[in-house]
Specification:
mainly alpha
Length: about 325
């Protein structure tokens, strides 16, 4: 595969995954904001911006006025926000057009249909009464694209570059949500272990679509250590760090076999996955959750950058 095509596939699926993750985070923030007074609700929306890395861009646009309508419109559809969900969908479509001959007709049509429908939805401001329907629409379109991928794509290098883009992005999202939990969501250390703390851990699970799965595995008990273990180490959950890296093992292993060599990206991945596989949740908390996640995010970012460098000229 030409490097340009590999890069297009990689970013097409990163953007699609990032768009879905973003709307899940907005939904979780909206749920929490509904249960809080106006001051606390503003902090919940601020936490959404910080998790997404948009706090400075938002402040340049709206100053210190952090309200739900301003935040979710900025994140979803603001033309001055290059990281908005609509901008991601447009970028995904641009990449899909570039690699049109490498994806199936069904995948292209699903991506293009998502762009057309969401462009129509985001043509006017999103109100609080419309928000749930809008978020559902984005998730529904993402599901259709994913279904087209799984049911029509040949399991070749194109499919595996798509998987790498998806799971690198998903691991980054889950790690960032966990990190923000300790440093933004809790108003003070005195809230640790309180009913508010438990509600916010539940919010973390909702933001990664893991609440029902966690409750099913743990008889409904909300235990912070158990939740962290679930989101980091449980390979049964498709958004955990361990699951994402197990999938990357298959994707990158295929590329090594297909091209007959391993690259520097494989060494970075193997180091990261080996460390993740050897850890226990006790060791993670002893080290410090924030420190662990910081190291994981740095490794994941190095991996993504090295993949693009390594496969730029593969033919």
């Amino acid at each position: 595969m030409l490097g340009r095509s590999a890069n297009g596939i990689f970013w097409l699926f990163r953007y699609l995954e990032r768009a879905e993750n973003t709307v899940r985070l907005i939904e979780a923030g909206f749920r929490m904001a509904l249960t809080r007074d106006s001051g606390a609700a503003s902090e919940e929306w601020r936490s959404v911006l910080i998790t997404l890395g948009m706090q400075h861009a938002y402040a340049a646009r709206h100053g210190d006025d952090v309200t739900g309508a301003h935040v979710f419109n900025f994140v979803l559809r603001d033309r001055d926000n290059p990281a908005s969900v609509m901008a991601m969908i447009e970028a995904a479509r641009t990449n899909a057009r570039m690699v049109r001959t490498g994806i199936t007709r069904e995948v292209w049509e699903a991506v293009n249909e998502s762009w057309m429908k969401l462009r129509e939805i985001f043509a006017r401001p999103v109100t609080e009464t419309r928000l749930r329907d809008v978020l559902d629409a984005v998730r529904r379109q993402a599901t259709q694209v994913r279904g087209a991928i799984e049911s029509t794509m040949l399991r070749n290098d194109i499919y595996h570059f798509a998987g790498i883009g998806t799971f690198v992005e998903r691991a980054d999202n889950t790690a960032r949500i966990l990190d923000v939990k300790y440093y933004v969501l809790l108003p003070s250390l005195s809230a640790v272990g309180s009913s508010l703390d438990n509600v916010q851990w539940e919010n973390v699970l909702r933001s990664v679509a893991g609440e029902r799965a966690y409750r099913w595995l743990n008889a409904g008990q909300m235990d912070p250590r158990g939740i962290a273990s679930f989101l980091i180490l449980d390979q049964r959950f498709p958004r955990s760090l361990a699951f994402c890296y197990a999938q990357l093992q298959a994707n990158m292993g295929f590329l090594a076999n297909e091209y007959g060599f391993e690259t520097e990206a494989h060494a970075i991945y193997q180091s990261g996955y080996g460390r993740l596989s050897a850890l226990t949740i006790e060791a993670i908390f002893e080290q410090g959750l924030h420190q662990f996640i910081g190291e994981f995010l740095a490794c994941n970012n190095r991996l993504a950058q090295q993949i693009q460098r390594d496969y730029r000229f593969v033919e």
